[in-house]
From TrEMBL:
Record keyword Nucleotide-binding present: no
Signal peptide residue numbers: none
Membrane topology, from the record: Single-pass membrane protein
Organism ancestry: Eukaryota, Metazoa, Ecdysozoa, Arthropoda, Hexapoda
Parts of the chain that traverse the membrane: 99-118
Biological process annotations from GO: intracellular protein transport
Keyword terms: Membrane, Mitochondrion, Mitochondrion outer membrane, Protein transport, Receptor, Translocation, Transmembrane, Transmembrane helix, Transport
A GO CC annotation given for this chain: mitochondrial outer membrane
Subcellular localization: Mitochondrion outer membrane
Bias (Polar residues) ranges: 10-20
Sequence ranges of Acidic residues compositional bias: 49-58
Compositionally biased region (Pro residues): 148-157
Gene: LOC115875552
Descriptive protein name: Mitochondrial import receptor subunit TOM22 homolog
Amino acid sequence: MAPAEENDSGMESQEGSQSVDADIEKEPPQDDSTAPREAPPKKQPAIEGSEDDEEPETLSERLWGLTEMFPEPVRNLTHVTVVNTKLGICKAYGFSRSAAWIIFSTSIILFAPVIFEVERANMEEMQRSQQKQMLLGPSSAISGGVPPLLPPPVQQR
C-alpha cells in the first residue's frame, strides 16, 4: 500500500484542490449508510412464513423488543410492579392455605365431640323406643309412646 500512497501524494501536489475530491472518491466509504450500493433483498416477516433458515420470532421476543420504546423508569416501575404482584399472590395463596387448614382442623376438633354426643343421644332414644316396643307391643311404638297408666301418687298429710 506504500506505493499507492506515494502516487496519491504525488497527485496532490500536481492537482492541488482537485486531489481532495479524488481522494474521497478513491477511499472506500467508512459508513455503510452513505455508500450508494444496492439495497439488500427485503426479508418477509416471520408471520408470513419466510423460507430463510432463521426461526420465527416468538411472542416473548416480540414483547421484549417492544420494551425498547419505553423509557428506563417506566420499565423499572413495570418490573417492580410485576415482581411485587407475583410475590403478593404467592403470599396470599400461602396464607389462605394456612387459614383454611386452621379453620377446618379447629372446627373438627371443636364440633366433633358435640356431633358424637348428639349421635349418642339419638342412639339411646332409639334403644328406649325399641325396648318399649318389645315390652308393650307394636301398638305402643305406633301410638307415639303413650306412657302406661300408673296409679296416682299417694299424698301424705
